[in-house]
Amino acid sequence: MKKLLFVAATLIAPFAATPAHANDSALLDEARKVATTLPPKLLVALQEEIRKSGAEGAIPVCKDMAPKMAGEISQQTGWKIKRVSLKARNDARAIPDEWEKAALEDFDKRAAAGEAPGKLEKGEKVGNEYRFVKALPVQGLCLSCHGPADQLKPAVQAVLSQHYPNDKATGYSEGQIRGVISVRKGL
Ligand code: HEC
User: Which superkingdom heads the taxonomic lineage of this protein's source (predicted)?
Assistant: First the structure.
């Protein structure tokens, strides 16, 4: 009996000590911080590289530098970081799972209904992880590589079709949601 009580107490204690909602809001803050580290850095790198060597020359920023920086932030923080999209360019790493897909669809609906795309985010515990996604809105700068296919520079088209034969990530206009940055951590 004593043993049983002890087991019951250790099961209940962690939940009693930290109210679930307080814990969740700390995780939400942390996840948001991790997710918002990468996009501004990428944006600056893209701007610089486009200015120096044109959109075709800036493709490595999105192709190589983005995943490399995501990997570095993962190592520093312990959060896994991805970028996923309903219309993926890189079908090896940007296909959303069910949870991400549901969030992406919800964000598209809400943006179409007038919500500011830059504010759309979702964070919650899923199984034994905390997961968070934040929408990445299309800005003017993105259009040189994600705009309507027939408006891309031929040099950009050439590089894209060489690396991404299944590219679905064109045809966007400003204000649409290109995808999400998705972060997760085991609890
Ligand atoms: C210079 C060209 C270029 C510009 C400008 C650009 N991208 Fe990309 N984008 C790419 C390439 C190439 C990939 C594929 C990266 C990879 O291989 O993982 C990509 C992938 C992505 C992905 C990952 C999902 C997927 O479809 O593979 C997101 C999200 C994304 N871009 C958002 C943006 C946003 C938002 C902007 C504007 C702020 C932007 N991109 C500007 C070239 C560009």
Answer: Bacteria
